[in-house]
């Protein structure tokens, strides 16, 4: 459409020695491990996905109660539950 501004093309970036195809990184906690959004958006269009904690083997995490509240705030020990990378 004439007169409609087009967004500038996104360029590859390098962070800590890793090159990403663009600067759009899906933040940790917004999509678990990425699988939750694969039917909603084309994950290949993202520069990357910042996941929750991932360990070599699956982990169930700690049993409840995982959070303790106190007057100054709270403590949590969730145990890094995750599906693992194997």
Question: Topology of this protein?
Answer:
Layout: E1 13-15, E2 18-20, E3 25-26, E4 48-49, E5 67-70, E6 73-76
Parallel strand pairs: 3-4
Antiparallel strand pairs: 1-2, 5-6
Characterize the structure shown.
There is one protein chain. This protein has 86 residues and is mostly beta strands. It folds into 2 domains: 11-52, no CATH class; 56-86, no CATH class. It contains no helices and 6 strands. It has strands spanning 13-15, 18-20, 25-26, 48-49, 67-70, 73-76. Strands 1-2 form a two-stranded antiparallel ribbon. It has a two-stranded parallel sheet with strand order 3-4. A hairpin with a 2-residue loop joins strand 1 and strand 2. It is elongated and about 60 Å long.
Can you give the helix content as a percent range? under 10%
**Cα shape:** elongated
Give a quick account of the main beta sheet: strands, pairing sense, barrel closure: 2 strands, antiparallel
* Regions with little confidence, pLDDT below 50 for 5+ residues: none
Number of domains: 2
**Beta-strand content bin:** 15-25%
CA-atom Rg in angstroms = 19 Å
How many DSSP E strands?
Answer: 6
Give the topology string: H per helix, E per strand: EEEEEE
State mean pLDDT (0 to 100 scale).
Answer: 85
What attributes characterize this protein structure?
86 residues; mainly beta; 2 domains; two-stranded antiparallel ribbon; two-stranded parallel sheet; 6 strands
Short description, anyone?
With 86 residues, this protein is mainly β. It has 2 domains: 11-52, no CATH class; 56-86, no CATH class.
């Amino acid at each position: 459409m004439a007169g409609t501004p087009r967004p500038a093309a996104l360029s590859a970036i390098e962070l800590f020695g890793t090159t990403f195809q663009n600067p759009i990184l899906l933040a940790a906690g917004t999509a678990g491990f990425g699988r939750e959004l694969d039917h909603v958006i084309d994950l290949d269009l993202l520069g990357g996905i910042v996941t929750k904690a991932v360990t070599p083997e699956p982990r169930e995490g700690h049993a409840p109660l995982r959070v303790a509240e106190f007057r100054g705030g709270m403590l949590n020990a969730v145990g890094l539950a995750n599906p693992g990378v194997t």
